[in-house]
Amino acid sequence: MGTALRHVFARDLLVLDVETTGPDSQLHEVVEVGAVLLNRSTLQPLKRFQSLVRPERFHNADPRSLRIHGLSAEKLANAPRPDEVVGRFVEELGLEYIFCAWNVGFDTQFLRSLFRSAGRLEEFNRIDYHKVDLWSLLELAWVLGFCPEEPKSLTDVCRMFHIERADVHGALQDALIAAEVLRATILVLRGSNDEDVRSGRPIAVDNV
């Protein structure tokens, strides 16, 4: 399969998603991590990672966040500890990649907090600080007239690109969806006159 990119990324991309007990990384915790490592040239998946995480301060949880992912204290009671999750994360994925996510600042700040909880913040700081934010790319595409709709949410973007997304979110599921959105976004940025993109018809992301 040929690449759709004129040049390759500097590193492979780690498309990341985390589910949390709330929006504040100083107060709330990661309860699930999902990631898919994409080849820097073809954007095809190399590895996948998923794990629940046992929270230590579940009493601080925001009910609105819990409704999004449906994870409860009971479901997380036997989940791995933060140090176990981070250990497996580093062992399976390494540290040589660029983070990519729908809202990459949110996901990476929580992952950083998870590494800190595991006593491995130094390793997190060795990961390339450059990041790819999907919302920002699509917002730019919309402002320039390349995208048929403003990217107000990942759900809206999935509808625009005809990507199925379940009502209850899971971290690995959303990481895989974000990888699809990345491929579709590259098509948008690569072909501003593509009638399928501008009309909202399905985009053949498998060809990327």
Tell me what the structure shows.
The protein has nine helices and five strands; from the N terminus they run E-E-E-H-H-H-E-H-H-E-H-H-H-H. The protein is α/β, with parallel strands linked by helices. It has one domain (13-207): Ribonuclease H-like superfamily/Ribonuclease H (Nucleotidyltransferase, domain 5). It has a five-stranded mixed sheet, sandwiched between helices. A hairpin with a 6-residue loop joins strand 2 (30-38) and strand 3 (45-52). Helix 6 (134-143) packs parallel to helix 8 (171-190) and helix 7 crosses helix 8 (171-190). The termini are close together.
The CATH homologous superfamily is named: Ribonuclease H-like superfamily/Ribonuclease H
Shape: globular
N-C termini distance: 8 Å
Could you tell me the number of beta strands? 5
Amount of beta strand? 15-25%
Largest beta sheet: strand ordering: 3-2-1-4-5
**Class derived from helix and strand content:** alpha/beta
The CATH class assignment is Alpha Beta
What's the helix count? 9
Question: How many distinct domains?
Answer: 1
Order of helices and strands: EEEHHHEHHEHHHH
**So, CATH architecture?**
2-Layer Sandwich
How do the helices and strands line up, and which of them pair or pack?
Blueprint: E1 13-20, E2 30-38, E3 45-52, H1 63-69, H2 73-76, H3 82-93, E4 98-101, H4 104-117, H5 121-124, E5 131-133, H6 134-143, H7 154-161, H8 171-190, H9 195-199
Parallel strand pairs: 1-4, 4-5
Antiparallel strand pairs: 1-2, 2-3
